[in-house]
Amino acid sequence: MWEGLGLQVFLMCLGAMLCSVVAASVPLEHSHRHRLSLHRHRERTGKEGQVLHRSKRGWVWNQFFVIEEYTGPDPVLVGRLHSDVDAGDGNCKYILSGEGAGTIFVIDDKTGNIHATKTLDREEQAQYTLTAQAVDRDTNKPLEPPSEFIVKVQDINDNPPEFLHGPYYARVPEMSNVGTSVMQVTATDADDPTYGNSARLVYSILQGQPYFSVEPQTGIIRTALPNMDREARQEYDVVIQAKDMGGHMGGLSGTTEVKITLTDVNDNPPKFPQSVYAMSVSEDKVSGEEVGRLKAKDPDLGENGLVSYRFIEGDGMTVFEITTDTDTREGVIKLRKPVDFETKRAYTLRVEASNTHLDPRFIAWGPYKDTATVKVMVEDADEPPAFMATSYSFEVEENSPDGSVVGRVHAKDTDVANNPVRYMIPRYTDVEQFFSVGPEDGIIKTTRPLDRETLPWHNISVSATEIGGHHQDTKVRVNIKVKDVNDNAPEFATQNEILVCENVSPGKLIETVSAVDKDEMVHRQYFHFSIAPEAVNNQNFSLKDNRDSTASIYVTRRGFSRMTQDVYFLPIEINDNGIPPMSSTNTLTIRVCSCDSKDTILSCNVEPYILPAGLSTGALIAILACIVILLAIVVLFVALRRQKKEPLIVFEEEDIRENIITYDDEGGGEEDTEAFDIATLQNPDGANGFLPRKDIKPELQYPMRPGGRPVANSVDVDDFIKTRINDADNDPTAPPYDSIQIYGYEGRGSIAGSLSSLESVTTDSDLDYDYLQSWGPRFKKLADLYGTKDFADDNS
């Protein structure tokens, strides 16, 4: 990129020297040339006749030039300023101001020479505007008006071209023609495009040939090789160079990388990897199941590589079908209908694969399709037996005897082995077991007489199982119709009573009766009606057969009375004229009713005449009301009794100190000998004339009763109670269990004294109850109530 750099540096130095010489001479000549021409005098007369004089400028210049990037040892002489008022005696002083004055540009205040002290870069600033002025050295008064001048930086080729947007990415279709535009790249050069060839760029390709080329002036990249195939190579790395100086030697250059990708077109037909495919299918497969797959390869991408499959010929086109799996692009062969190994064992199919989207530009390259042969072998499977018919229908007469033949079903093993078949009826299809089937011959028979009126149709299944093999079975539907036999006599269609007025006229039609028969009626068959022989001579009613399975009933006399007879029974015989004929006698009930003059029935009830003293409806209602009131009173009384028994206040925890028990009967004490046997209740200690006090602690210990446990030094009252209970249980003279025993003493040798609070009401309660603490858990409540209270009183 930097070729010819040495030569370029040499030319730059030479140019800088020439420019310095020219710049040093031009201002002097320019100042001298215009020195006299710029002295101009102009007189102008004012209103008062004064003459005005315009002062002349003694030095004028236009612009200076300085070359950029000068790297010499001395400052570059830009130019020289000189004024006519400068007599050369040193009184004239030159001053420089403006852009870069004092830093980049300096002036000799005596000679007016301007030098550049720093290296200038045109790309940073192309020109500088400065102001010069000549002043008196001593007084600093301007000798001439200030004047502006421009210093332009002379451009050199010091900036290489640059691609600002690289690297670049481009796409072009494969198989494009030569010269197809790929993209355009553009480089920029910071040098002055108006000066020389520093910014004149030329493009060239350094890498990517012979596939691509670039236009030198525009930078447009084009294809240079025909029939570039994406399937062979998809990506290319191209390097483009931009060189200034018109591409000549010594110019600077820059490069960029362009990655070009070939896009896909449909230029490849699908192709089967093999010409023949072998597949197999079992004969027990059902319709819709997959047989096999095959795939034609197409290296194109996207929709250009889409392939569709179809059968074009073969003997299995009606047995098989082929579809396309859009995910895998495979052809899927499926069963259209089941196959049979015993019927046909092999099929041959011709499959065509073709592209679904064609590119018109490449149709001539076709055809875009391929074919392959598919051979499908049918595999033998152990199939269940097959019935000769999909279903069977038989008929059998009702009431046929047991073992009557209904029909025969037949199945056979379709496999090559042709194993024998065994028949059976699944019990769930014939729950009541009306039929049986021969296990070897398939003959269906009845097991009992059938009744058509109960069940006219029987729908059962017969199963055929292969003997040997895998014991597979198959079922067939058998519909059995029970044929009708005339075994039911006709009867009245309805059993309603016929109502007749007492004053009915003779010969009046009172009813038309009809009949029904559970058996089937054949064509032109009707019922025949007649009065039963035992009632043919009745004088009340007559019958007329209408010969349309109905009969009319007429009244033959007048003067019916409910008091005499309110109900008449007329037996009628009905014959169905079937084969064999069946008949039955049915009784027609005729009730006599009371009617008005218009034959409107008023009443058919005879109770008012039989029970005239019966209770009326009002009386019954009154009796029921009284019963309800009595029940309400009883319920109220019971509720009040229950309410009185319940306490007014229910305590959550019983408090012994607040329970007051009231006895209505004080008793006669020991002197009352009429209520109890004092001998059984008498205290043994009282017999000795000594009764211990109940309100004080006893000081003496008494001898233990014979047979009793010692309690002198014991505080276990529970043992004492159990001993007394044992004595009472073993004493035959003791009172019964439900009697009341009164103990007038606290127990012999008891240290507790009286536990009753009734006798201590008038005392000062100065007893010591601390001994209750040692009586055990049964007396813990008393110990807490009395012992704790006394202890609290002592502390207070």
Automatic annotation (TrEMBL):
The chain crosses the membrane at residues 609-640. GO terms for cellular component: adherens junction; catenin complex. InterPro entries: Cadherin, Cadherin-like_dom, Cadherin-like_sf, Cadherin_CS, Cadherin_Y-type_LIR, Catenin-bd_sf. Keywords: Calcium, Cell adhesion, Cell junction, Cell membrane, Glycoprotein, Membrane, Metal-binding, Repeat, Signal, Transmembrane, Transmembrane helix. GO terms for molecular function: beta-catenin binding; cadherin binding; calcium ion binding. It is a single-pass type I membrane protein. Residues 1-24 form the signal peptide. One of its GO terms (biological process) is cell-cell adhesion mediated by cadherin. It holds the Pfam family Cadherin. The keyword Lipid biosynthesis does not apply. It is found in: Cell junction, Adherens junction; Cell membrane. CDD domains: Cadherin_repeat. It comes from the Eukaryota. Residues 83-163, 164-272, 273-387, 388-492, 492-610 form the Cadherin domain. Cadherins are calcium-dependent cell adhesion proteins. This is Cadherin 11, type 2, OB-cadherin (osteoblast). It comes from Hucho hucho.
